[in-house]
Design a protein that fits this description.
The complex is a heterodimer of chains A (209) and B (217). Chain A has 209 residues and is α+β, with helices and mostly antiparallel strands. Chain A has helices at 2-5, 8-53, 62-72, 143-146, 185-208, and strands spanning 73-76, 84-90, 93-103, 108-115, 122-129, 161-163, 177-179. Chain A has a 5-stranded antiparallel sheet with strand order 1-2-3-4-5, with helices on both faces. A two-stranded parallel ribbon of chain A has the order 6-7. In chain A, strand 2 and strand 3 form a beta hairpin. The radius of gyration of chain A is 22 Å and the shape is globular. Chain B has a domain at 2-141. In chain B, strands 1-2 form a two-stranded antiparallel ribbon. In chain B, helix 4 (35-59) crosses helix 5 (68-90) and helix 8 packs antiparallel against helix 9. The longest helix of chain B is centred in the middle third of the chain and has 31 residues, at 124-154. Chain B is globular and about 60 Å long. Mean pLDDT of chain B is 81; it is low at 208-217. Classes of the chains: A alpha+beta (209), B mainly alpha (217). Chain A binds chain B through residues 5-6, 10-11, 14-15, 18-19, 22, 25-26, 29-30, 33, 36-37, 40-41, 43-44, 106, 129-131, 133-136, 138, 167, 182-183, and chain B through 30-31, 33-34, 37, 59, 62-67, 70-71, 74-75, 78, 81-82, 85-86, 88-90, 92, 96, 99-101, 169, 171, 174-175.
Chain lengths: 209, 217
């Protein structure tokens, strides 16, 4: 038995079989849970759009999110490949939200930005997906960071600056500035690029309406 | 039963992954600046180490020596991906918080270390206990470090503010270098403590000289 176990034939067959077994198990697990994972993803997207528009918060129930989304949000045609756009009228004011994926430090950052059609003031900004450094750049998804964008005035040249500040969040809503994350300057730069691109897209959609 | 007890004690204290084997340091630096992330990482590592060790121990008589490391990586990554798949489907909120952590589990040397050092030569049940003990041994050290880092770095514990309003967060505690200082200090304290205990066991040695080799481990 011993010499047989180390024979080249056994080694090849064993390696092949064991890889096949585990890969099949993973494939099955993935397939079985695929529908559920997709549903979760679509829910996460709906919820984040609503949150950026200020129509949902963490206490909103799942059914409320889906019904509000169905009644309040209209999906527009995609402004560019890989992007999505939504419109909504809240208390008589029209808003446009865009879903945008742009490079981050380790992987793409997907975020949703909502603003008025002229992109004068940001309505809300939420991160949907990111792979930034845990504990540093990864904190862009935390409320203290994203809440800084809420109601922030966009500068005359249509931009927002993510700058070094106290690291606690910039409370001034009229200076077109938000605090960057301490120890994550690169990620902060990527967020700034992403937000500026999203604002330009909102303006473009708003202008064509 | 005594074998089980020894395995648990080894993993949790005498041979803990961080203090004695000095494994898993990479993740210690990466995740310990906040307690919640640390807990998630610890649970993932504990699950993957325990299940991986158990599976590899079951298969050990079938695995040819030449390819044993390939098989270890295969089995361990299998469990890591399974965690990811299951969380994505049934616990999307946790899955989102985990983000890149799940992938980081496989880079943890403790998994391979236990598979190679223990599961390759022991029975499945005992290997499972060994994986569990090592995961938890790794865990309690990480939680201690994360506690200090989160407290001083953010002034919070599990996200709740505990420091007063005029507390200035120590930015260094949020960044990776602070983990170096803390891990090293913790290692020092643990080894001094261990060396003392050992010295006492040897019925009052004339000096502390016998403690030196142990402290250098």
């Amino acid at each position: 038995m011993k010499f047989k176990k180390e024979s080249i034939g056994y080694v090849i067959i064993f390696t092949f079989v064991i890889c096949a077994v585990f890969v099949v198990l993973l494939a099955v697990a993935n397939q079985v849970t695929l529908a559920q994972a997709k549903a979760n993803q679509s829910y996460a997207s709906h919820y984040t759009v609503l949150k950026a528009l200020g129509l949902a918060d963490p206490t909103t129930s799942k059914t409320a999110v889906e019904s509000t989304y169905a009644s309040q949000v209209k999906q527009l045609s995609d402004p560019a490949p890989g992007m999505a756009a939504y419109s909504s009228v809240i208390e008589g004011n029209p808003y446009i939200a865009v879903k945008i994926t742009n490079p981050g430090l380790w992987g793409p950052i997907t975020a949703i930005l909502a603003a008025d059609p002229k992109a004068d003031r940001i309505r809300g900004f939420e991160i949907l997906d990111q792979q930034e450094t845990p504990g540093l750049g990864g904190r862009i998804g935390e409320p203290w960071f994203t809440d800084q964008f809420k109601g922030e005035k966009v500068s005359a040249d249509g931009k927002i600056a993510v700058v070094q500040g106290s690291g606690k969040g910039d409370p001034n809503k009229d200076n077109s500035q938000v605090d960057a994350i301490t120890g994550a300057s690169r990620t902060s730069d990527f967020v700034q690029t992403l937000v500026d691109k999203a604002l330009a897209t909102v303006r473009q959609i708003g202008g064509s309406q | 039963m005594t074998a089980l007890r020894k395995v648990m004690k080894d993993g949790l204290w005498t041979n803990t992954p961080i203090f004695v084997q000095v494994l898993g340091i990479c993740s210690t630096l990466a995740v310990t600046n906040n307690l919640r992330n640390t807990m998630i990482m610890v649970l993932g590592v504990t699950f993957a180490t325990a299940m991986g060790s158990w599976t590899l121990s079951l298969l050990k008589d079938l695995i040819p020596r030449k390819v044993r490391m390939i098989v270890q990586v295969l089995v361990l990554s299998f469990y890591v991906i399974i965690i990811d798949i299951l969380l994505r489907a049934y616990q999307p909120a946790i899955s989102k918080q985990l983000g890149p952590y799940v992938g980081l589990i496989i880079t943890n040397c403790i998994l391979m270390g236990r598979a190679e050092a223990f599961a390759a030569a022991n029975k499945p049940g005992l290997s499972f206990a060994d994986g569990l003990a090592n995961g938890l041994g790794y865990g309690w050290v990480l939680v201690c470090i994360a506690f200090i880092r989160e407290l001083l770095g953010f002034g919070t514990i599990f996200g709740f503010k505990v420091m007063g309003g005029n507390f200035t967060p120590w930015t260094i505690m949020v960044m990776a270098p602070s983990a170096f200082f803390l891990v090293a200090s913790a290692l020092w304290v643990a080894n001094v403590y261990k060396a003392r205990a050992e010295a006492k066991k040897k019925a009052a040695p004339p000096n502390q000289g016998s403690a030196a080799p142990a402290a250098q481990k």
